[in-house]
From TrEMBL:
Subcellular location: Cytoplasm
Similarity annotation: Belongs to the diaminopimelate epimerase family.
NCBIfam families attached to this UniProt entry: DapF
Protein name per Swiss-Prot or TrEMBL: Diaminopimelate epimerase
Species annotation: Actinomadura alba
List of catalytic residues: 79 (proton donor), 79, 211 (proton acceptor)
Any GO molecular function: diaminopimelate epimerase activity
Catalytic activity, as annotated: (2S,6S)-2,6-diaminopimelate = meso-2,6-diaminopimelate
EC number: 5.1.1.7
Keyword line: Amino-acid biosynthesis, Cytoplasm, Isomerase, Lysine biosynthesis
Primary location recorded for the protein, binned into one broad class: cytoplasm
Matching Pfam families: DAP_epimerase
Amino acid sequence: MRFVKGHGTQNDFVILPDHEGDLDPSPSLVAALCDRRAGIGADGVLRVVRTKAAGEPALGDAEWFMDYRNADGGVAEMCGNGVRVFARYLVDAGLAAPGEWDIATRAGLKRVTLGASGDVSVDMGPPEVLGDGSAVVAGRAYDGLRVSMGNPHLACLVTDRPVTALDLTGAPRFDREVFPDGVNVELYQALGERHVGMRVYERGSGETRSCGTGAVATAVAAASLSAAEDGPLMGEWTVDVLGGRLTVTLDERTSHLRGPAVLVAEGEIRPGWPGARA
Ligand SMILES: N[C@@H](CCC[C@H](N)C(=O)O)C(=O)O
């Protein structure tokens, strides 16, 4: 089994080329690959499969499907950093040309824009604002906004300490009736005009050093708070995460995410590796 390792602002992935859909990415195989001690180590797996071979209904008209899995082996609808790394992989492998084209995801077609090297940008679609919510982190409650980016988010404002001082060793608590499928929890603070710092505890992966869908949800939450005071605050937002910097652009129609997407290594999983039989 071939693999490539990549990351977007240190949100890292094992990329599995599986053009004709021959692999069975069972939850235990995915979890074994993502294991940082006994496996390769990653926040998730990106399986690269031709859309027509993916066996998923109604993925739309794109040549490639991003089959995204969280580190615990669970399926998620969308991954904003993942789709940018996926696009970089396709260009690097000669499977797509630099330019602008769609990638199929479980959350619909996502249009990526990239050159032969450098940042990758993706049209993330219109964020869906679902209303207020709250999460408890290390015994303290934080209010936030529920936002769907195809996957569920709760972006909470932190004002009592820098987000870097939050204790995220344990999972945030949230209302299971509001989020029956779980939720990605973002904690953010204002750092300047249209500039926020964010940490994230991801559904299925724990704390990660970045989350693209979470960065967009956070910009939406911060913009909606600012809008209450200053009127609609569309435009470009800077989201600093533990692994670097992402740029989110909000307009009346959609949202865009831009940032680095880096391929690190490639190799072969040894046939005798116990995880491959998982
Ligand atoms: N890190 C990703 C989001 C991955 C999926 C998420 N953990 C979920 O379960 O919804 C991103 O960059 O968006």
